[in-house]
Design brief:
Length: 508
């Protein structure tokens, strides 16, 4: 799937082709063609969108007055150029599909499409609800970050400069538009930053199709499958049954345990490949990962006591979590068709088969990092999980006829909430240290580097609400008692009676 960085690379390639065409004979006639001017007008409009989004962080912030002032001046100049071009078009129809239009128009059109699609891709991570209240995703903080805004300004600068030179080639009538575009390019260059940001690794915000494990997958296929499972878990609905929460907790613990073993092996392999600094840092990063693995165990036991003898769910996020375990296990253990079980091999892969070279080591490390991030995604959804337990306790207390003032949150819910908050801290620490170690690998592509940086940045900033407290959880018990919601669960322990039948709306 194309990323924002891929689309910018396409736009830059067409821009470079455009700059070469400006020095060809007959360029003035091609530049003056109405279709070329129409495409230039559309390019200017897209660049105007770039500056508007950079100014406000896609309408999520207003805390950088210097950048905001620069983008306002840039927007004014782009508006001037757009209005001047518009006044000379005189409602000229788009004749791009006609065979007699110049290839220069095609080049400008391709640049505009790539830039526009890239901006739409970023915007998909900050959608708006029907009531115009922003509904952000886990990647929203990356899209709205200041370094992303300055990178967008740099992009605006390079393409506005090319558009300005094209307008100047179109004759004296378009010189005002050309000068305005070049001034806009100069201002945005001063406030821009040419260094790519983690946003370059973002793909369109959509739920990918499930990629079920198959036998004898290549490393690339395994990494793609782990990426798909992680993205599907991130997009899953937080509201699940207690049985599903129990299973997801168990899979998160297994994933972290296997990832811990893989991280140790990968550190040894990196040392053999001459990536000494990365090996040392990765070995150090295994400590927080081991701590995370250890801390999952009591949480798993608690859920097992709450939901004993439950069959594993066969649909939804539980399937994605199972796919993730299978693939991270096949990366770690010496069995291309490994599946979790008591009879599964525990013999790890030989180091030379774990990664043939630093590039493969980087790809394996990225898959490892995404697997650990998947456990953090499960942890980040803990409010809904703990709320289910709190609701069950209160509902059963009500079913026993206890007075209203005794409908208290069960102690186990308080314990689970405290454990999940600690798991959040340990998970973020593990992801950030693993990511920092993997970034030290020298032989990796810019796309891989951007992908690792994206995971680290995403994990460093919590997108989950922080206003929930132990007293109210994500949904107050009073609210839950009155909305007719049904919670399904096997018979738990801790002295709680079986769950009642689906609730009817409470009578006043």
């Amino acid at each position: 799937m194309a990323t924002f960085g891929d689309l910018l690379s396409v736009a830059d390639a067409h821009r470079d082709r455009l700059l070469k065409m400006l020095n060809e004979p007959g360029i003035a006639q091609a530049a003056q063609h109405p279709t070329t001017l129409l495409q230039l007008h559309r390019l200017t409009r897209v660049l105007l969108r770039y500056t508007d989004q950079a100014a406000t962080g896609f309408h999520t912030r207003d805390d950088q007055p210097g950048l905001r002032t620069a983008t306002r001046h840039t927007s004014d100049l782009l508006n001037q150029a757009q209005q001047h071009l518009s006044s000379h078009l005189q409602d000229h129809p788009d004749r791009t599909a006609e065979p007699d239009h110049p290839s220069l128009a095609d080049c400008v059109r391709a640049t505009t499409l790539a830039l526009g699609c890239g901006l739409d891709l970023l915007t998909s991570h900050i959608p708006e609800s029907p009531k115009n209240s922003p509904t952000t995703t886990d990647n929203a903080s990356v899209v709205a970050a200041g370094d992303t805004a300055r990178w967008l300004m740099h992009t605006t600068s390079t393409h506005a400069a090319a558009a300005g030179h094209l307008a100047l080639r179109a004759g004296p009538a378009q010189h005002p538009a050309g000068r305005a575009l070049l001034k806009a390019a100069l201002i945005s260059q001063v406030f821009g930053n040419a260094n790519a940001t983690p946003a370059s690794a973002l793909a369109l915000n959509r739920v990918p199709d499930r990629l079920g494990p198959t036998g004898c997958e290549t490393l690339t296929e395994t990494a793609a499958g782990i990426d798909a499972s992680t993205r599907r878990l991130r997009a899953a609905e937080a509201t699940q049954t207690v049985t599903t929460w129990r299973y997801l907790t168990h899979t998160a613990a297994i994933t972290c345990h296997i990832s811990d073993r893989l991280a140790h092996r990968l550190a040894l392999r990196l040392n053999e490949l001459g990536e000494t600094e990365a090996a040392i840092k990765l070995q150090a990063a295994t400590k927080p990962l081991s701590n995370l693995t250890q801390y999952w165990r009591p949480t798993v036991r608690t859920w097992a006591e709450l939901s004993p003898h439950a069959d594993p769910p066969s649909t939804g996020p539980a399937v994605d979590a199972s796919d993730l375990i299978i693939r991270i296990g096949r990366l770690t253990f010496d069995d291309s068709e490994w599946t979790p079980g008591h009879r599964s091999t525990r013999r790890v892969r030989p180091l030379h088969r774990l990664a043939a070279d630093p590039t493969e080591a980087s790809l394996t490390g990225t898959a490892l990092l995404k697997a650990v991030e998947a456990s953090l995604i499960i942890t980040d959804q803990h409010y809904a999980a703990v709320n289910d337990i709190a609701a069950l306790g209160s509902l059963r207390s009500r079913a026993r006829g206890s007075p209203a003032h005794n409908h208290r949150t069960p102690v186990v819910a308080h314990q689970l909430l405290a454990r999940y908050e600690q798991l959040q801290h340990l998970g973020r620490t593990a992801v950030m240290e693993l990511g920092a170690a993997l970034l030290q690998i020298t032989a990796q592509t810019p796309a891989t580097t951007a992908g690792i940086s994206l995971i680290v940045r995403r994990s460093a900033s919590s997108s989950r609400p922080t206003a929930h407290t132990i007293s109210d959880f994500p949904c107050s018990i009073k609210e839950l008692l009155s909305d007719g919601r049904s919670i399904r669960s096997p018979t738990p322990r801790h002295g709680l009676s079986p769950a009642p039948a689906p609730l009817r709306r409470a009578q006043p």
